[in-house]
Specification:
The radius of gyration is 13 Å and the shape is flat. It has 3 helices and no strands. The chain has 50 residues and is mostly helical. It has one domain. It has helices spanning 2-11, 13-24, 28-49. Helix 1 (2-11) crosses helix 2.
Length: 50
Amino acid sequence: MLIIEGVLPFINPAALKRVLLQVVSMTDQHLRITGLLSMVAGVLILYWVN
């Protein structure tokens, strides 16, 4: 997981900064929905891999 998370800051640190600034400006509800969608996507990828 840390390898995957480290790819964006290694390849394009400026893009990571822009993304983090956008995350800070998001509402709590939007962050929760984004987190839920990320979890569902992760479960689907794990199911697909297995």
